[in-house]
């Protein structure tokens, strides 16, 4: 059914990316699965989110653990003739995923990148991912999406400049072809839907191209501007030495603020260069060009000595970070789209 219908429907619609899903309920299947369970009882343990214990991976594991002799005893060759026919539960007609990429700016200091849920309770009313996805889902008339980006910023950090590359898998789109003008229109709809975010370079990409975003992510550089507070009063000439520091290697223990979800480790990250702009005796702007993955906040306040060296040590006074902006994410994907 699948092979016959899929081709006919695809031809009729002029779109070969239509796929059918046929969950088939078969008495025959259940019987063989019972034998599988006898074969390797340990292989079929119930897990949280799986409907059936007979997953593809579990069956493969069971087959690997079973000797040929034992297998032949349970499954005679030729197989026993089925006594009842298969019954079809359901047919689903789906479109393969379409992938969309672009870059986003975030102008708001109270917007998380993804929905922020603590103990089942929603913390902020929106998120970057939802603001971008809503107009896209409605244009593609899709069932859902999967969002990924080149790194992420904290809820209170803005992303300026050319923005942060992102990609979205659009699940089961009912409209899948968009020309350049339509994509531009969609981009404008997203831009106008909220003053918290903007997108550029919005385009349809291939599934393969998406992996380019994650490639060599660690080696990429990122630029930031931080507003710094100093405990001791400073003069403009007290901070200029920072401009001469190049390729500063930091040892960063996993920050206390993320320790609940990341393993404890010491990571080395490099600050390629810094520049300062004096503001007043307790404040200055610090520009940083760093290796991706550097914890900027921890470099500034030191995280109780867990980041070494840190700005407190360099300036010999307590320092803290009041505001942080991402100025650029130097990943050359997706390709820029000329306006
Ligand atoms: C979302 O992407 C992840 C990683 O690529 C994948 O494992 C997951 O199945 C995707 N989710 C959906 C709903 O397609
Ligand atoms: C959307 O906003 C971005 C960032 O400001 C801008 O570069 C782009 O031209 C805008 N696109 C449209 C179609 O409004």
Automatic annotation (TrEMBL):
Enzyme Commission designation: 5.4.99.25
Domain Pus10 N-terminal eukaryotes: 1-93
GO MF terms held by the record: RNA binding; tRNA pseudouridine(55) synthase activity
GO annotation, biological process: tRNA pseudouridine synthesis
InterPro entries with a match to the protein in the record: PsdUridine_synth_cat_dom_sf, Pus10-like, Pus10-like_C, Pus10_N_euk
Family of the protein in this entry: Belongs to the pseudouridine synthase Pus10 family.
Protein name, UniProt field: tRNA pseudouridine(55) synthase
Species per Swiss-Prot/TrEMBL record: Echeneis naucrates
């Amino acid at each position: 059914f699948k092979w016959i219908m899929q081709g006919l429907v695809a031809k009729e619609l002029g779109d070969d990316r239509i796929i059918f899903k046929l969950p088939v309920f078969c008495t025959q299947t259940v019987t063989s699965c019972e034998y599988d369970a006898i074969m390797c009882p340990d292989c079929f343990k119930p897990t949280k989110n799986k409907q059936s214990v007979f997953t593809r991976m579990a069956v493969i594991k069971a087959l690997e653990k079973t000797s040929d002799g034992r297998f032949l005893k349970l499954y005679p060759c030729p197989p026993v003739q089925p006594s009842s026919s298969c019954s079809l539960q359901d047919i689903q007609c789906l479109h393969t995923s379409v992938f969309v990429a672009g870059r986003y700016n975030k102008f708001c200091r109270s917007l998380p990148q993804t929905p922020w849920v603590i103990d089942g309770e929603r913390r902020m009313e929106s998120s970057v991912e939802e603001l971008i996805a809503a107009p896209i889902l409605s244009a593609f008339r899709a069932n859902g999406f999967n969002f990924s980006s080149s790194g992420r910023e904290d809820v209170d950090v803005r992303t300026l400049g050319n923005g942060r590359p992102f990609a979205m898998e659009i699940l089961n789109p009912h409209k899948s072809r968009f020309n350049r003008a339509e994509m531009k229109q969609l981009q404008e709809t997203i831009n106008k839907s909220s003053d918290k975010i903007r997108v550029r370079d919005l385009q349809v990409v291939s599934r393969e191209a998406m992996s380019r975003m994650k490639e060599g992510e660690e080696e990429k550089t990122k630029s930031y501007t931080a507003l710094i507070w100093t405990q001791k009063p400073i003069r403009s000439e007290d901070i200029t030495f920072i401009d001469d520091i190049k390729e500063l290697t930091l040892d960063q223990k996993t920050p206390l603020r993320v320790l609940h979800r990341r393993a404890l480790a010491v990571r080395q990250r490099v600050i390629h260069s810094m520049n300062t702009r004096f503001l007043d005796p307790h404040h200055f702007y610090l520009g940083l060009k760093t290796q991706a993955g550097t914890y900027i906040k921890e470099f500034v306040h030191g995280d109780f000595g867990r980041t070494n060296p840190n700005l407190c040590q360099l300036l010999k006074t307590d320092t803290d970070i009041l505001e942080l902006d991402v100025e650029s994410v130097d990943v050359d994907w997706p390709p820029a789209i000329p306006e």
